[in-house]
Amino acid sequence: MEASSDITVLSALLPFVAIVFIITIGVVLLNLQFKKNIYKQQLLNEELKNKHQLDLLQTSIAVQEGERKRIAENLHDELGAILSISRMRMVQMEGDIGDGEHCETIAEIRSYIETSIASMRRISHELIPPQLEQFGLVPTLESITEQLSKTKKITVTLSSNDYLPELSWTIQLGVFRVLMEFLNNTIKHANASEIHIDLSGDKNDLWCLYRDNGIGLPEHIPLNGLGFRNIEGRINALEGQLTIGGSKAAGFTASIQIPLK
Amino acid sequence: MTDVIKIGIVEDHHLFREGLKAILNGWSDVEVVFEAAEGYTVVDSLAGKRLNLPHIMIVDLSLPPNGSEEYSGMHLTSDILKHFPDIKIIVLSVHIDENFIAQLIEYGAHSYLVKDCDPQELYNAVVSVYTKGSYINERTLKAIQHNLNRKRNVRPQIALEVTKREIEVLQLVCQQFTAEEIAEKLFISVKTVNGHRNNLLQKTGSRNVTGLVIYAIKNNIVTLG
Question: What values do phi and psi take at A37, rounded to 5?
Fold first, then answer.
């Protein structure tokens, strides 16, 4: 009797236990699913945030470059034209008055105008070289490396594929700015006599190798100067990769890979 | 010279155009008969004055676009030459880069002057272009030469970098030294010389020594004396 009532209690409890068990499992599963969803959401948010950050970076670079180009062109074409015609008229006047009165003053003013023209050209080229848009990355780099080599203090060589893939304006400009930053660093700090730049690429990627024979990166200087930040920003904006290396014996080396998409 | 040289000016900066006109009209044998502030209207305007066409057009390089379409002095130069092959063109620009100069000459310009040249040079250019068909100053000549050199230099591509030692070996190979003689000269073993030579064959993609010699000449490693 006792035993049979026990069995009835047990058999009455059994469904309860089963139900509780199923509910517990259900809750645990739901919880897991919930956590997974939250995690997914966070990941998505992070991705959106990164994308947004990239957009911001790209926009700020584009705005800055647009502004630079506008100023450079106005300087070059407008101010350049006016300064040039002033000089021409001055030279003409000098010829007219010969050794007459004020000839020295006029010659002096003419030389001021000449200096203005020279600085106008330098400033506008520093802002953005006019050839870059018209002729592209390689011919512009050729001009610059030739000019640097002419100073005899440093030899810059440039090599590139016969047929580089077609590069967008953003990529050309970005790579140009990075290389100029490297060149500046080498010239200012590296005590190098040779620089080599190599550009190559296929339909997927552009590769750029930069190498000098200077003192390499000093260990005590961390890579967070303004110049380096600028380089990093440029390469991030192009979604590329930068690898920097080198030593006292081997000089500074950098390799850049830019996806062409 | 009794002829009057008729000039057209295409220049978007008013001040520069006026100044230039004053300079040109100051010479008795030169007369400005045409002027425009933008390039894209020029061919049509010139077509309208068939009887009094300028002999020479002085063209600025940076000209305002036609709506959203770029129309620089480069476009204008080739368009004028296409429609009016007798008109000569002097490009007068602030641009000083060799790439621009060489390209404009390639497009058919008969002279390239920078805007800050001397008025006398402008006059010489005008007269020379009118009487002889062109005026090429030293800057322009250098730009053209440089451009030619550059085009020639682009061709050879070293796929794998050839070492200094290999270049030395290659130079001696080209001077017809045998492996033994090269070994002696460079103080290395004959085996090493052959190793260098094999590497060179591989790196330059040559099948035999003739290929190496061709490679050396192409890459200016040896010169034909």
Answer: -60, -45
Q: Give the Cβ contact number of residue B151 at 10 Å.
A: 10
CA separation for the pair B89, B129 (Å, rounded): 8
Bridge pairing between strands B88-93 and B56-59: parallel
Indicate which of B12, B27, B114, B115 best probes the interface with A, i.e. most A CBs within 10 Å of its own CB: B115
Nearest to A141 by CA among A133, A150, A149, A132: A132
Chain A closest-CA separation from residue B157 CA (Å): 7
**A136 touching B, CB under 8 A?**
no
The whole-angstrom distance between A220's CA and the closest CA on chain B is: 33
- pLDDT surpasses 70 at A220: no
Nearest to A259 by CA among A205, A200, A202: A205
Select from B18, B94, B164 the residue whose CB has the most chain A CBs within 10 Å, as the one to mutate to test that interface.
B94
Assembly ipTM: 0.75
One-character DSSP codes across A210-231: EEE-S----TTS-S-SHHHHHH
Helix axes A169-185, A137-150, angle to 10 degrees: 20
Q: Which residue has the higher pLDDT, B54 or A251?
A: B54
pLDDT at B131 over 80: yes
**Edge-to-edge strand ranges of the sheet holding A251-259:** A155-160, A194-201, A205-212, A251-259, A241-247
Tokens of B155: 């061709």
Shortest CA distance to B98 belongs to which of B56, B143, B129? B143
Mean predicted lDDT score pLDDT of chain A? 88
